[in-house]
From TrEMBL:
Keywords, ordered alphabetically: Repeat, TPR repeat
Name assigned to this protein: Tetratricopeptide repeat protein 38
Keyword Nucleotide-binding applies: no
Region (Disordered): 420-448
Signal peptide residue numbers: none
InterPro entries in alphabetical order: TPR-like_helical_dom_sf, TTC38
Organismal lineage: Bacteria, Pseudomonadati, Pseudomonadota, Alphaproteobacteria, Rhodobacterales
Family: Belongs to the TTC38 family.
Amino acid sequence: MRNDICDSPVSLTDPLLADHWNGVITGFLAHGTQTPVHLGKVLEGAPDFAMGHAARGLFSLMMGRAELIAVARDAHVAALAALTRAGGAPRERLWVQALGEWLQGRPSGAVAAMEAALRLQPRDTISAKVGHAIRFMLGDARGMRASVEAVLDAHRIHPLRGYLLGCHAFALEETGDYAAAARTGLRGLDHAPDDAWGLHAVAHVYDMTARPDAGIALIEGHTRAWDHCNNFRYHVWWHKALLHMDRGEMDVALALYDSQIRAEKTDDYRDIANATSLLMRLELEGVDVRDRWDELAAFSDARVEDGCLVFADLHYMLALSGAQKGEAAEAMCARFARDAIRHGEMPQRVADPGLAAIAGLTAFAEGRWDQAFQNLAAARVSLQSIGGSHAQRDVFERMTIDAGLRAGRVERTAQILAQRTAQRGGHEDRFAQTRGASISRARRIAAQ
């Protein structure tokens, strides 16, 4: 048994297969396109490598697609059979356990298994990243930060140090420590120039602290960090579009939508989230996005019954509403009602905040502003639990505020806007400035 690049025992005796496994690790950390290629080579050459099967299953579940649950189940069966035939190191068994936990509806159990692996070997960067990714999907920002900080010392001299610093930077940003997040993310890029996650963590900082010029310069000046990526590069383009919007350059943002963000018409939920949230932001600013909703709605219509992630579902709902697909939107609401009474960690998120959120989106699409405001305001209390980042969920915050203004709920809307600004360390972006001005006008009119 040899050690991989994470200094962890791995049941691969062939040096070439061990190199491919290291390619899986570095590819996953860097959001590279060759990760599945390396994993395929590993499983082809070592069908009894249980951790490889577990990786295939875990990576499939991270895609948030109903049809890939069957792939993950097959991978779990193969992993258990491989353990029976060939055994496996403790970390490998923990990865198989993690996959089983998630398949049983307990993604938090998968996180616990990754934490157990890190206790065995705190230099195990890939287990740290997988736990980080699942926590991200669960909206557990504090957990992300605590997990990374527990293994930072073990990564002081480590070939993958930069990627862990990128995870730390993102966790710092999501917990509001913006200055430390920027320093850490930029330091991580010195160690791992191809770390798209770390770059994007710093872009988040500039978004949250209303520094669009710095954010645009960062992205344009570090293309090596993200132009090699899989579809994550579209998310970086999305960040750039948001930063241009903050400068009032709506035409640039729309052009980036056409030329980059939807350059490839995929139905990956993360790509749909990029697209729908940008179109909604643009519409809130009075931009006519014309028929761009239609192709997103076609993909979203096919996902009405998926029910893998509330975060994905709410963005599908944006597309269905934007394209005025009333029947599909009603079907989504009905499916939420069914899922909300099921047991499990994800159905809990459908019940709260999912039901209130989807009711709010429906009311918003129909112009029922007061009902939209009440439901979206109720959902925002626990909206972080659906996963994603503050920047991604901000589209729902913006809709809440605009619904409140249109409903005449001036003072409550002002409170929410103030809370949004406080979360950004007191920094007012263009949205906060324009809505603050609207609130001031409404107050003056009421006082006359």
